[in-house]
Amino acid sequence: MRFILVCHFNSNSNSAETEVERPMFPSPTGHEYDAIDRLQAELPTIIDDETQQQVDDYRDACNDGKGAMVACFATAEFLSMFERKHQEAFDLFENTCFRPYKDKSSNGIEVDGTKAYPPACFNLAKMLMTGKGGVTVDRKRAYDVFDRGCRAGHGGACHIQAKMLLSPPGALGKDIPYDPFKAMDLYQDVCDLGDSVSCFTLATMLLRGDKINKQARNATPAEVRGEEPVMQRTNEDDRSANAAEDFEYIPRDPKRAEALLQSACRTGAHAPSCFNLAVMYENGDDGVPKDSEKAEEYKKKTEQAVHTLGGL
């Protein structure tokens, strides 16, 4: 059995030989959503009278960005999803992410001396990343807004901020920091809130170590421990770590990874986490002894999760 090692960043090439040759991620244009918008425009928009009244009430309560944060956020979501007025939605998300400290709206969180509605910051940052609706792509500002949303308590913002921190240095632009240790802290915080994907992602980092390339999607326990050579299988890129990369490798910590995988398997019925625990107990690892009973237990949990959720 193999560990599932899923990297939560992508690159446009194999492991770069030099920093100069490492490509940037392509910048989105915002037109990626045009086809979806055209399709939605052709579909009938059916909103019953009660729902329409709720929408109208939210618009009134928002009062052109001067009203309650939650009303403006709900209005922005409606504008983007149903009316496809993305720029208007963007303006309201921005308004709701950045309010004066004196703003009295409920659910506003103080950040840097101002008030933020965390879900609005999350949506604003996503639009800045993707250019949806013709919004100018600005990854540095997107990173800063994800950071703001994260500090306001939005787990999704923390998770994506962590993914950005793990992107190869310079791949998202020179202004985006590369900091795997801060990413680990963010994943741990969101994991503690019950997010199984963050638990799994952090566990993956702690299992990979310095023998396996960070873009490899799987490895055997013996490979990650250096007990056997990292094999390059048919139709697969070289999975061995590349000394020419200037990435920082996280020291292996299987015991901590075990606890994270247990949390993800237990709270989220997360099949990959249950599977990796089965592998860990079947093979044993540093600080984690072999345990055939636990291996069988987590094999069954994996099967249950796959059956329930439809796959790994």
Automatic annotation (TrEMBL):
SUPFAM superfamilies: HCP-like
Biased composition (Basic and acidic residues): 224-240, 287-304
The keyword Plastid is annotated on this UniProt entry: no
Parts of the chain that traverse the membrane: none
Gene3D superfamilies reported in the protein's UniProt record: Tetratricopeptide repeat domain (1.25.40.10)
InterPro entries referenced in this protein's UniProt entry, alphabetically: HcpB-like, Sel1-like, TPR-like_helical_dom_sf
Keyword annotations from UniProtKB, A to Z: Repeat
Keyword flag Repeat: yes
Family: Belongs to the hcp beta-lactamase family.
Name by which UniProt lists this protein: HCP-like protein
Source species taxonomy: Eukaryota, Sar, Stramenopiles, Ochrophyta, Bacillariophyta
